[in-house]
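Need a sequence for this fold. Nothing fancy.
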């Protein structure tokens, strides 16, 4: 028997509403159970029939763990209907009706089925994170709903969002509010800026919390894997210390998230901020830092940079310590610093290069960007800059229609500049150039390129697991394997 959760009482009313209306907005505090209870409940709704339910998540780890949890709650037989999918990993099959996926999968999958004919409902979870893919996905889904698929249900869920604005955008969609289980959390700040070494700040905060005699798990929020590794190095004497991040293998993820009776420390990126439930947390250490995508001044390509987290982000992190009992949060910055931070993170749509997004929309048949139903419309300057780049790359022709080059560029999971690089390399007389271009694209995408001589960096490049898979994917999209095989056969024939 699965434990009751606060969201359970709202589900019957939600289903009844969705039988009549094609949209709903759900605000649910952390711990309410929205991610694991709402999606499977839709499977038995009359409007779903034999169609699929898709759940879009901002992060791979959250999509994977939610899928595994729902499958476990449904049991062995019903659990076969649940799966997850994101780049390089697809755990779905013929029986799958409930798919958890990353938000970036929506538009690529839609290219194969532009009306989502097999889908009854799409849930956009953790919408408050305002990722570019979620923002773009919502606008495209709303366009589809208003034109070809009025029967398609859209459900937006989050712990914190502007419910009234989203309700109006979705044609007066009803708003459902689920309370969570939250206990008071004491907050402490550093009295003044201390040692610049973040790992030593973390170590000091953990010693301070240990002095309070707290049991349970301490969750430490860090901006990235590099900081996690450095903290692991200085915390060797602190007992059970785990790392939690998006690329962690699923077996290790499950081990980290397994409930523990003793004291445990989890060093995590912001994957655990809202979209993932970590059991047993009684204390939080907040570095106050996060990684966000920005356009690199060096390459003109998307790049992750470390920036101060917003007040809203800090509040979400603090709330992780108040699920089971009264907890504590130590913020590794001053109260003055907190009070002068931005209230909310700037939506990614307003700080990103939109050229790849517009290329994807063009391939899906979106011709007029002025009438496209943006929830948050980008600035005219950012749209103009993106369109101008696509024209210069040859992706758009007269009337800003997609060219054949543009169609081929849209098939690559890369920024348009890199897609164009691969297409140019394909026509090189040197047979080794296309393969080298694929590796170079992986190098740049991994953000390991920082020097002035890319060819020198390419010679000593040791790609990680994800980059190797990206390189092989690009090789396949360029159809290089068949050409390399043909060349190899020709070489044997010449011998």
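Here you go.
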């Amino acid at each position: 028997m699965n434990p009751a959760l606060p969201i359970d009482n709202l589900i019957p009313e939600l289903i009844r509403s969705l039988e009549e209306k094609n949209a709903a907005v759900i605000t649910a505090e952390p711990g309410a159970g929205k991610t694991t209870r709402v999606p499977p409940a839709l499977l038995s709704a009359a409007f779903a029939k034999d169609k699929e339910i898709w759940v879009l998540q901002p992060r791979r780890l959250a999509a994977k763990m939610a899928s595994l949890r729902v499958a476990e709650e449904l049991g062995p037989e019903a659990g076969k209907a649940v799966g997850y999918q994101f780049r390089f990993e697809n755990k779905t099959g013929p029986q799958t009706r409930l798919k958890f996926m990353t938000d970036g999968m929506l538009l690529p999958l839609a290219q194969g089925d532009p009306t989502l004919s097999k889908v009854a409902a799409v849930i956009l979870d953790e919408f408050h994170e305002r990722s570019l893919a979620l923002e773009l996905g919502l606008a495209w889904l709303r366009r589809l709903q208003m034109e070809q698929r009025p029967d398609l249900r859209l459900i937006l869920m989050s712990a914190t969002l502007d419910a009234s604005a989203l309700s109006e955008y979705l044609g007066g969609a009803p708003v459902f509010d689920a309370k969570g289980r939250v206990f008071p959390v004491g907050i402490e700040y550093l009295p003044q800026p201390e040692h610049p070494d973040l790992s030593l700040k973390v170590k000091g905060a953990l010693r301070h919390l240990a002095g309070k005699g707290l049991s349970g798990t301490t969750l430490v929020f860090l901006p990235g894997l590099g900081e996690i590794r450095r903290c692991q190095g200085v915390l060797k004497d602190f007992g059970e210390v785990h790392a939690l991040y998006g690329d962690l293998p699923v077996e290790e993820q499950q081990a980290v998230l397994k409930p523990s009776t003793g004291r445990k420390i989890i060093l995590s990126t912001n994957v655990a901020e809202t979209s993932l439930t970590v059991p047993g947390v009684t204390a939080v250490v907040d570095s106050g830092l996060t990684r966000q995508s920005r356009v690199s001044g060096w390459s003109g390509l998307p790049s992750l940079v470390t920036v101060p987290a917003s007040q809203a982000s800090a509040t979400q992190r603090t709330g992780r310590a108040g699920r089971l009992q009264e907890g504590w949060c130590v913020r590794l910055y001053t109260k003055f610093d907190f009070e002068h931070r931005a209230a909310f993170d700037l939506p990614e749509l307003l700080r990103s290069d939109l050229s790849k997004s517009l290329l994807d929309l063009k391939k899906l048949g979106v011709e007029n960007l002025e009438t496209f139903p943006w929830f948050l419309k980008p600035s005219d300057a950012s749209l103009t800059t993106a369109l101008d780049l696509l024209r210069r790359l040859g992706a758009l022709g007269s009337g800003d229609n997609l060219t054949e080059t543009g169609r081929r560029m849209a098939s690559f999971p890369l920024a348009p500049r890199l897609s164009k690089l691969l297409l140019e390399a394909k026509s090189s007389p040197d047979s080794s150039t296309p393969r080298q271009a694929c590796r170079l694209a992986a190098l740049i995408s991994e953000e390991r390129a920082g020097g002035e001589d890319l060819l020198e960096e390419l010679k000593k490049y040791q790609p990680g697991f994800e980059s190797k898979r990206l390189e092989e994917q690009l090789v396949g999209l360029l159809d290089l394997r068949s050409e390399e095989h043909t060349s190899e056969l020709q070489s044997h024939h010449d011998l």
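For context: The two ends are 69 Å apart (CA to CA).
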